Structure of Putative 2-hydroxyacid dehydrogenase:
Amino acid sequence: MPKHKALYTDFPWSDPDIERAALAEADCELVLSPDNKEETLIAQAAELNPVLIVTCWAPTTARVIDAAPNCRHIARTGIGLDNIDVEHATGKGILVTNVPDYCVREVAEHALAMVMDLGRKLSVCHHATKSGVYDLVAAQPIYRLKGQTLGIIGLGATGTILAELAQAIGMQVIGTNRSQQVPPGVTWKPLDELLAESDYVSLNCPLSDETHQLMNAETFAQMKPTAYLINTARGGIVDHEALAAALDKGQLAGAALDVQTPEPPDLSRPPYNDPRVIVTPHSAFCSPQAITELRERVGRQAREFLLGRTPECVVNPEVLDA
């Protein structure tokens, strides 16, 4: 019988074989939750009392954590930490890890693809022609991207790569962040000026108390009526009802959304059913290379922890000093 047990709350790939193999090297059995609902996870944690919780998008709340008194490590298969009560875990001496840099190029490329799609009206024309309408006039205006302004909110690793890609096709890039430190070729702007000047606004910041519904009725009103919003960060950064209302009022021209709140959203409702809105199913992070890297690194983190060593990418290092 294995020495340890780990609870795997959820994963968006076909099987957990990579993670399971890594944990087996540390004499740990990986047990899969039947679903990622909070009540299910509480029941699973109470039954297994795992030393480790591996989680992708599931709500790893204080209640879930408290149901597993033996837990000493929560490993996030991803970047964002908004689904984990990190503060509560830290208070209980539980190490939290993530993989903050595994898919930054994929997300940046996805955001740029959305910019191109919106500007060149690819999806609009595709859906029209597939429905029997072959009319280039109806799709106008279609823009030349060179010389247009991309405003990036959040200039971490993903935002920096996006800025490089956008500049490579001739776009002007402005950005905003707390540090006011920007990559080469990017002009820093306060948020209100960025919104007023941008032809495309890309969200590449983490979800926090400060950024929760950052894009709302007030900020949409500051955008150009010809501008587009792109979100590949977190759904909670956008007030989707306010986005639908802003589109109805003509305060912006359209949007491209890879992340929603909740997921999946009700696709029959605005803004998701608006033909001016591109929706992708939280797929910006995806590539075979990125997913394999993510899973291998999470497996190593868990294995290192179980073998008594410090894993990479510790979110709450104060636990190590306790």
About this structure: The mean pLDDT is 97. The two ends are 31 Å apart (CA to CA). Residues 95 and 201 are 35 Å apart (CA to CA). Residues 104-279 form a domain with the Rossmann fold fold (CATH 3.40.50.720).
